[in-house]
Amino acid sequence: MPELKARALVPVAALLAMVAALAGCGGSGSAASPPAAPPTTTAAAPTTRPAPKAGPVKLGDAPAYVALAVKDVTALSRVHGGDVIAVFPANLPWGSPTPFLITEARRIAAGDTWLRVLLPRRPNGSSGWVRRDQVRIRPVSDAVEVDLSSRTASLLHEHRKVRSWRVGIGTAGTPTPTGRFYVTVKLRPPQILASAYGAWALGLSGYSEVHQSFGTGDGQIALHGTYNPASLGRPVSNGCVRMDNQMISLLAETLPLGAPVTIRA
Do the beta carbons of residue 80 and residue 112 sit within 8 Å? Predict the structure, then answer.
């Protein structure tokens, strides 16, 4: 029995010796150092865009741009803080959005963009500033020019004249006003009286400078058709511009709301 105990202790002693030897492979008898931590990387600082500069803003390369109301629009006398000129509804009584012709765009130091627009109100040529978030902007490529001296009108596309035709204009006592206007609404029978306005009436942002009202309106002038072609080329209207039904129908199809209409003496 004692001999068996002695023999059983030999392998244990040898195993302990092997463990001691393996522990010494790492150095001069000292405990092995823990593995080094992986190098840390510093996260790149997030980049920030510089604030947009205040000043004029270019909307694009189209001949003109129109602003269509998406909510009630407040027009001010100057950018960000002027007097209120007028408040316009988001939609006209006929369901179409209230349009404005943009003449200038400007960004203020706070980053907001403001638009200077022609207003559909008296006096003719009125303008005001509206916030960019009150409207959606659309490019316009087509326009109309009316020459009162020759009693003709022309359709322009990308500033190039593509067609001209005869028109009837205001009489000496009820002249057609001159200036830069734009299309505010497009109406056709039964929204209008066909006998008076033909196939279509395209209301403009301009008003008679003589009449405060005529017909059922408030003196707003229009491009409209006629069933009396003999009146074309003559001074016959209360200030509106008459043309044959074929041409007014073409314009109603071609011109979007806000399209510029320039009337020259």
Answer: yes
